[in-house]
Amino acid sequence: MQDTIRHNLNQLRNHSGKIIITAHHKPDGDAMGSTLGLYNYFKNAGIDSSVIVPTDYASNLNWLPGNDDVRIYADDMQACDNEIKNADYIFCLDFNALSRINQMGEMVSESNAVIILIDHHQSPEDFDNERFVEIGASSTCELIYRYINTHLDSTLMNEKVGQCIYTGLITDTGSFRFSSTTSTTIRTAADLMDLGVVPDKIYRSLFDQNRIERLQLLGHLLSNKLEILEEGKVALGYLTLEEIERFNIVTGDTEGFVNYGLGIAGVKMSALIIDRGPLVKMSFRSVDAFPCNIFSAENFNGGGHKNAAGGASQDGLEQTIDKFKSVIQNYRAFL
Questions:
Q1: What is the pLDDT of residues 92-126, one digit of tens each?
Q2: How is 242-266 classified by DSSP, letter by letter?
Q3: CATH of domain 212-334
């Protein structure tokens, strides 16, 4: 644990400027859960804050308390830049490098605000003034819960805060089935239930609100675009830009597709490669020893966690697939 937090609740209350809370581009459940969890907590504490995220996010997160107050940086850059410029504090959640917030990163780096980083990704860059970072934590939401308990006032947490934090717990742990799940994670979930969180209600809100196009694309992927490599130990799925457009796919629709490969007996590593034009985006998942983060960093300009990482390529879909099939052979010792 890296804990260099110096500012307490009273100092956050007695500021004259703005508090900004942000997360990485294309924010997922952990990113939005942590930002809105902290936002709702500050609301309870009488602290004025704003959530600004770089880009839009999946519609299955729109039910989160405080969602209507979220600002999308890409939609209103000038106004958001002014807020960032006048901020006293900027909370950076669930990312380890300013490049992860796109153009916002430049404004944050030029800001005179106190930058507070709360994150669980490996090798965080040195852009913050204070940090609450633990690489082994299941999620940034778990760290938000601990940050509130350690440095703020836990009695100000309520069901809305709990709903947001629980969302990050279950999305980043695969509903508590990934190896990142610890006894601390489970105890945190239990504490959130004591605040009024109803697990099955949140699960349905997150995972049972699919667009028909999403399920049709998933069926197409599993039936026609999934290959098994390396003697049954690697699953590779891929989608063209034409397929993404034909199925009318929107932000968040392919979330979780990569996990289906791990449901095949014997598979240790699953990859999903999608042509997003101009970039080809990749998601990697694994079980046991396979280091997705190292594989991604060494071959596809990416990173993440040991068992969950992402990458990108400018080489086009076919070349990227060919490269994947070639370089995966160098990691057979981990399969």
A1: 999 999 999 999 999 999 999 999 999 999 889 99
A2: HHHHHTT--TTTTTTGGGGGGGSTT
A3: 3.10.310.30
